[in-house]
Design a protein that fits this description.
four-stranded antiparallel sheet, single chain, binds adenosine-5'-diphosphate, binds magnesium ion
């Protein structure tokens, strides 16, 4: 701000000083004239240095803000719960993270000092001009309100256009994200053209929005240039008339021309500020929109650490729904003793996965409670709760990176030996060690370079390394062929030893030995008991089991 003030002072004095220098020529004092010209040169150099400071530090300020805000936004995104991600498109988040934040910090980059400098220049110049020749000053300043009105109006139009552009680019991003991550599906359906059409639609809307924005921008630039020229013309025309009438001398007119030209920059900046403010605030609103979303699942103030877990899990009359009109789980009662295995069986859509997701509190129960070792999971710290639960599911997600990175995700502090032991337990070590790069093999995006069974075993190794007392296996083997399944089954049996295990499996042969089997349908828990008991009562389970051996599936069961 201090530098900006000095810049304004220098900028305002130069025309005035120049006029004095020219007056000296009339008095034939060439030496002083030359000294003043040198002085003005020095002033220009100082002004340039000050301008550098304002620009550089202004940008540094913006860059720091952007860094901090992006960090905050990322941290906030990490804290948001499943429900948020159930309904949000990745591309839209990307757009906010990259474009909107940038837009907003542009404002912080130059905003305040530009605004300050421009006001100083306009007001200072007004007084300087009135002091020199009030009639001409008045003529010039009659123009200014009109100029500002036009500039602001056109700027607003322009920024509305650019805001629209931003919305459209967010859609292009979202479309791109979805198309690229689904590229293998598109190809398998030979639907590249269809994807192209969908993309083109968004891309076209983006183009059209840019056309409008640029049209308004061109009108703005044209208007600004034109009015500045007219202003110059007025100064020369009216000034010439005043000189003719003997009200003013030529040197004053020259100083006026210098002032008028020093004007166009502040006015441009002022209107620039209006636009930056508009789009910066739009970006800020979009930033705050995310920041203001409360993470639905939080630690309660008195939450305690979940420690020394034995693994006794209980569902006390648990009811849950994703929306208001349909209960997915209704009044569920379950009791799993520490170290025991409970199997969940039932038609797809019955709520088995949902039930599993309630234990690590991915979603919050609507009614009832879930306890671990008789502690309500609502009253323990979420981090400690999740550290005690290992989840292996059907769709494995591997992060881009090496096999080692992916296994170590289970425990980033593990050492080499522990890593290899986990891989051995997951029956994947032999495969990894024969790879040219071994554990440092890159798995590609989402582990695309590995087979389903290999990915699954890496995800199991991850849980071995995590070593949690509670284990959830959600159809961990259903995507696999028989041979791989046997291997994985072996690994899973090893994994569940000594842990409380909740297992969901398609193939009932794999859960025969569970301590208890629960049949869950859309109406709730239908049957409960050991494999042997359930076959005896000849209910749903017995039907399912027989069907799997005969190779057909009765109608009533999905
Ligand atoms: P299962 O694992 O037994 O096949 P799920 O627990 O996946 O069943 O699903 C139970 C019901 O909840 C289904 O009707 C499904 O459509 C619905 N559902 C699952 N996940 C969500 C979600 N994230 N948002 C809304 N509804 C969901
Ligand atoms: Mg499921």
């Amino acid at each position: 701000m201090v530098c900006a003030l000095l810049i304004a002072v220098i900028g305002l004095s130069i025309p005035m000083v120049s006029k004095h220098a020219l007056d000296l020529i009339a008095e034939k004092d060439f030496n002083t004239f030359f000294l003043i010209i040198l002085g003005i040169l020095v002033a220009h150099i100082i002004r340039a240095a000050l301008q550098y400071i304002v620009d550089y530090w202004g940008h540094i300020l913006g860059v720091r803000m952007e860094y901090d805000m992006r960090k905050d936004l990322f941290r906030h995104l990490q804290s948001l719960s499943f429900r948020y991600y159930d309904k949000t498109r990745t591309g839209h988040i990307m757009s906010r993270m990259v474009n909107d934040l940038n837009e907003m910090t542009e404002l912080a980059h130059h905003g305040p000092e530009d605004l300050f400098l421009s006001f100083m220049m306009l007001i200072g110049a007004f007084f300087a001009m009135v002091f020199m020749e009030w009639r001409l000053a008045l003529a010039v300043y009659l123009f200014i309100p009109f100029l500002i009105w036009f500039a602001v109006k056109q700027r607003v139009k322009m920024s509305e256009g650019f805001r629209n552009v931003k919305k459209k680019i967010a859609n292009v991003n979202a479309q791109l994200e979805s198309s690229i991550s689904g590229i293998r599906v598109s190809k398998s359906f030979a639907n590249e053209e269809h994807e192209m059409d969908k993309f083109t639609e968004g891309n076209k809307a983006f183009r059209v929005s840019k056309n409008t924005a640029f049209k308004n921008m061109s009108i703005f630039m044209l208007g600004m240039g034109f009015t500045t020229n007219i202003l110059n013309l007025v100064v020369i025309g009216f000034g010439g008339y005043l000189i003719y009438g003997g009200y003013m001398d030529l040197n004053t007119l020259l100083a006026f021309i210098l002032y008028v030209n020093a004007f166009s920059q502040p006015i441009r900046k002022l209107t620039n500020f209006v636009q930056q403010f508009e789009s910066g605030m739009a970006g800020f609103d979009r930033f705050m929109e995310i920041m203001e979303i409360k993470p639905l699942i939080n630690d309660l103030p008195h939450a305690t650490q979940l420690k020394d877990v034995k693994g006794h899990i209980r569902f006390n009359n648990v009811t849950f729904s994703y929306n208001d009109h349909e209960k997915v789980l209704n009044n569920i009662k379950l009791d799993i003793d520490a170290g025991k295995t409970l199997a969940l069986v039932g038609p797809s859509g019955g709520g088995k996965t949902t039930l599993c997701h309630l234990i690590p509190r991915f979603y919050e129960v609507d009614e009832g409670e879930i306890t671990i070792d008789d502690k309500d999971i609502k009253h323990v710290k979420i981090k400690s709760l999740r550290e005690n639960i290992g989840l292996v599911s059907q769709d494995v997600f591997l992060f881009a990176g090496t096999i080692k990175d992916n296994i170590m995700y289970g425990n980033v502090n593990a050492n080499e030996e522990e890593l290899i032991l986990a891989a051995k337990n997951a029956e994947i070590h032999d495969f990894i060690k024969d790879l040219p790069d071994g554990y440092d093999t890159n798995v590609g995006e989402r582990g695309i370079r590995l087979s389903g069974g290999q990915k699954q075993r890496i995800s199991i190794a991850r849980v071995f390394l995590k070593n949690p007392p509670i284990l959830i296996l959600d159809e961990a083997t259903s995507a696999l062929d028989n041979e791989t399944e046997i291997k994985i089954q072996r690994a899973l049996e090893k994994l569940s030893k000594g842990r409380t295990t909740l297992v969901i499996a398609h193939r009932l042969s794999t859960i025969k030995n569970a301590d208890e089997i629960v049949v869950i349908t859309e109406d709730g828990i239908k049957e409960k008991g050991s494999h042997h008991d359930l076959l005896q009562i000849e209910g749903t389970y017995a039907k399912l089991y027989k069907a799997q051996f005969k190779g057909y599936i009765p109608d009533e069961i999905d």
